[in-house]
Design a protein that fits this description.
The protein has about 500 residues and is an alpha/beta fold. It has helices at about 15-30, 40-50, 65-75, 85-95, 100-105, 120-125, 130-135, 160-165, 180-190, 225-230, 250-255, 280-290, 310-320, 415-425, 445-455, 475-490; strands spanning about 75-80, 110-115, 120, 155, 170-180, 210-215, 225, 240-250, 265-270, 295-300, 330-335, 365-370, 400, 430-435, 460-465, 470-475. The chain starts with 14 loop residues before the first helix and ends in a 6-residue tail after the last helix. This is F-box domain-containing protein.
């Protein structure tokens, strides 16, 4: 269903909108066509017609014309989630998209919180042969719809590959899967494999994909996707925006090394996590980042890394350097405040991570940890322990420095270097944001604030305290200029 179905804020009261709505109502009285109604009225009645958004039988409450309109809207944008979490709804949706014309209507597909849900045999038993024929048409030779001997029910998750192959024209998809992912790996691989010559091969027109995996409603998020399971989605022919929340990068270097630079992905957002008993190498990280042909936006979150951090930094930047001319937005977050060997009791002293961010001339948006910007000791990138404005991309528009812990260190001179970057900039910079957890002793950025006021740059220092408390200190020269202009226009009393 449309996202604004319950929102009244989208309904404008301007004269032109009111006149247009009146004309649509007049047209509806003449034609009785639901499509001629004003959008806000159409969506309100459509919400009543479809109720949960999945139970098609509820459409019988309205006329045939409304059933047809609701049917078209439902299949164009289908969502299975909290409001309609009945496993039989997946089967009902599959009944509908089994028809080729209906299946080709689907453009947006969202399957949320799909876990070990069971469908009673009385709901699907009579359709078992039909489902097997759909799997055969889609080239899913290993698909088998078996009944649990104990519960006498069917696993609803096995319907997902069939749904994906029947909705072959879908352009945006979101799959939020609970429990173990292994049951789907072979089936999904077969559904999108280059060897699959079926006309119902899945995801051939997909532009945006979001994969999320977690343990369930009462378990924390955990990495369940492995590159061997989802590596094929990196090379879907039309995919431009990929989000994978929870991916184990183990052995990625070997599995993906032959297809570097061939993926059409332009926006990549991944959360890389590792099981404690496995190890990820720098080649795994580098190979994942080297898949896109022309990467523009990257958001990467490392939740747990069991590797020497010099390999981590080396692999990260080796993977990104090929995108130095095209990368426009870079966000790097870690689950730990310090860039150390997180699963080791020994903290390295002779090496500190350092990133050649100044070598990315196309970067306009940057959000990284403070430790990513400087070197405390000599390393492979710098010959000295100091850092300069060369650590910043030259054409930045927005800069966010996270986990700022060493801003008051005298040897770093953090405030003056940041102020120098603002003063010597090319005029592109619009905003700087610094986040820290020093709630009781906040850092002073007097030089940076002064430089930002002179150059018209918005500066914000965000301080996170205990219990989720938060304090923000904002210096916005744009608002100050507006207030000054407004006060100058006020009449002067005699």
């Amino acid at each position: 269903m449309p996202a604004n179905i319950d929102s009244e804020s989208d309904v404008s009261d301007s004269p032109s909108t009111i006149q247009s709505s009146h004309e649509r109502l007049v047209k509806y009285r003449k034609t009785r066509d639901p499509a001629s109604l004003p959008p806000e009225i159409f969506h309100r009645i459509l919400q009543f017609a479809t109720c949960t958004g999945a139970e098609l039988s509820n459409c019988c409450r309205v006329s045939y014309a409304w059933r047809a309109a609701a049917d078209r809207q439902l299949y164009f944008q289908y969502s299975y989630g909290n409001s309609s979490r009945k496993p039989v709804n997946l089967a009902r949706f599959l009944y509908g998209v089994a028809d080729k014309d209906r299946g080709d209507q689907v453009r947006e597909l969202s399957l949320n919180s799909v876990g070990k849900h069971l469908i009673h045999r009385y709901d699907v038993e009579r359709h078992k042969d039909h489902f097997n024929s759909l799997a055969e048409e889609a080239g899913l030779d290993c698909w088998n719809f078996r009944r649990n001997r104990v519960t006498q029910c069917y696993d609803a998750r096995l319907l997902i590959p069939l749904i994906l192959t029947r909705t072959r024209n879908v352009q945006e998809a979101s799959l939020d899967l609970q429990e173990d992912f292994a049951y789907l790996s072979d089936l999904l691989h077969a559904a999108v494999s280059l060897r699959n010559q079926s006309p119902f091969k899945a995801f051939q027109h997909l532009r945006k994909l979001r994969l999320v995996s977690h343990r369930g409603d009462f378990y924390p998020s955990v990495a369940l996707f492995w590159v061997k399971d989802v590596g094929h989605v990196f090379h879907l022919p039309a995919l431009e925006d990929l989000t994978i929340d929870g991916i184990g990068a183990f052995m990625a270097g070997r599995l993906l090394c032959n297809r570097k630079g061939q993926s059409p992905i332009r926006e990549l957002s991944i959360t890389i996590g590792m099981w404690p008993e496995t190890t990820v190498t720098r080649w795994d990280i580098a190979t994942i980042l080297q898949q896109p042909r022309m990467l523009k936006r990257l958001n990467v979150y490392f939740s747990q890394i069991r590797m020497p951090h010099e390999d981590f930094v080396d692999g990260l930047w080796n993977g990104l350097l090929q995108h130095r001319d095209t990368l426009e937005s870079l966000v790097i977050e870690t689950g730990f405040p310090e860039w150390t060997d997180w699963l080791s009791f020994e903290k390295p002293e002779a090496y500190h991570p350092c990133a050649p961010l100044g070598e990315f001339p196309g970067l306009k948006e940057l959000a990284v940890s403070e430790n990513c910007l400087h070197c405390e000791t000599p390393c492979w990138h710098e010959d000295t322990g100091t850092w300069t404005t060369a650590a910043f991309p030259p054409n930045l528009k927005t800069l966010t420095i996270m986990d700022c812990f060493h801003a008051d260190a005298e040897e770093l001179d953090f405030d003056s270097v940041l102020a120098q970057f603002v003063d010597e900039g090319k005029g592109c910079l619009k905003q700087i944001e610094v986040t820290t957890r020093r709630f009781y002793e906040p850092f002073d950025f007097n030089q940076t604030e002064s430089a930002c006021l002179d150059k018209g740059v918005r500066f914000e220092q965000r301080i996170y305290g205990p219990g989720g408390s938060q304090v923000s200190k904002v210096s916005d020269p744009t608002s100050l200029a507006a207030d000054t202009q407004q006060s100058s226009q006020l009449p002067v009393e005699a």
